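W.,

You were right to be curious about this one. When I first looked at the sequence I had no strong expectations either way, so I just let the prediction run and decided to look at it fresh. Below is the sequence, 97 residues in total, followed by the output.
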Amino acid sequence: MLHTINKSPFENGTMLTCFRFLQPGDPVLFIEDGVYAVRSAGHYTSDIRDVLKTNPVYALLPDLDARGIDAVVEGVQSIDYDGFVELVEHHQVNSWL
């Protein structure tokens, strides 16, 4: 199952709730304001690193660019809209709003 997170973790606890329900191998995609979570050396770096031990983590590149984020936690993969569509084609989606 693909988990999408679109809210900043500084706004609410959605991201951490999502992390409690992840199954190993479930991809996580940060979009919109959710991309603030994957900033390199950010407040949530250790949480992201823990997830990366068992799950692929992605961030939507246009959303990173729009927010001026040019460095993400090592291991987080930046993807474009084509990559987003590919993930959706291969997984059921659970949107954490």
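Here's what jumped out at me. The chain has a mean pLDDT of 97. And, maybe more interesting for your project: The CA atoms of residues 52 and 69 lie 19 Å apart.

Coffee later to discuss?

I.
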